[in-house]
Amino acid sequence: MCIIGCGWVSTYIRNIDPKHWANSFFVGCRYRTHSSSNAKPFNKWIHHERDLPPASLVDELKVKIMRMSSEKRELGRTYLDSLTPIYKSLLKSHVDICLSWNVTESGNDIYEVHSPSSHDVDLMQMTCTCQRWKVFGFPCAHATAAITMKGSEILKYIQPYFGSNHFLNSYAPAIRPIPNYDRLEVYEPEERVLPGIPRPPPGRPPKKRIRSAYEKERRPMKCSNWKKIGNHDKSTCRVLMLE
């Protein structure tokens, strides 16, 4: 709320193509070269600059994002192959691994790969029983073996997201500078927006703790000495311990 109010985020979003705003602002997600996690760098930056006022913090984040986007853009221009270097190396490792595997064709682009355990690869559906191809979108070693057996181009079965062109296009939109020469350096107390007063939720507060979906509820225990339901049984009864 405070970040949007400072203006540069909303101005930046309005000036870019709506089709590519996600790639421009939240570049990368789960494809390693782009970013391992979007939250980690932002949390780290905010942690180091947490003592700054909100306006100064937003300006500092804007400069860091501009610098990071520019560095990634220059890095993408050095990629000369179809795939980024990380996934080019990953594909090469898959090819080297599957050289010693046996592949049997079943028909209709379905293959059985012995690696030494058997896996079924469906090239038409782009799936493998190891589930790696479906989860990551990049052909696993079993799929690479089947594609090599078929004699097809491996790049045909790789999503464009892993390519160098997509990496370069993700960082192509530039973040425009937002000058702050006309911004007030000091704000009057009456101009500051204070947080609202929290209100307790209606109704009685819950007395019983809400358990997680995988948490098992403890089974009531009955002590044969006391003949009552409690939190212990005969083996842990204190009466026997005292005796």
List keywords for this structure.
10 helices, four-stranded antiparallel β-sheet, 6 strands, single chain, flat, 10% strand, disordered N terminus, 243 residues, alpha+beta, two-stranded antiparallel sheet
Which secondary-structure class do the elements indicate? alpha+beta
Q: Give the termini distance in whole angstroms.
A: 66 Å
The value of Rg in angstroms is 29 Å
- Secondary-structure element order, as H and E? HHHHHHEEEEHHHEEH
Beta strand %: 5-15%
| Average of per-residue pLDDT values | 76
Number of E strands: 6
Characterization of this structure:
The chain has 243 residues and is an alpha+beta fold. It contains 10 helices and 6 strands; from the N terminus they run ααααααββββαααββα. α6 crosses α8. Mean pLDDT is 76; it is low at 1-37.
Produce a short descriptive summary.
By secondary structure, the protein is α+β, with helices and mostly antiparallel strands.
Sequence-ordered SSE layout with sheet pairings:
Blueprint: H1 2-6, H2 8-14, H3 21-25, H4 39-48, H5 54-77, H6 85-97, E1 102-107, E2 110-114, E3 118-122, E4 127-128, H7 132-136, H8 141-150, H9 164-170, E5 221-223, E6 228-230, H10 238-242
Antiparallel strand pairs: 1-2, 2-3, 3-4, 5-6
Helix pairs in contact: 5-9, 6-8
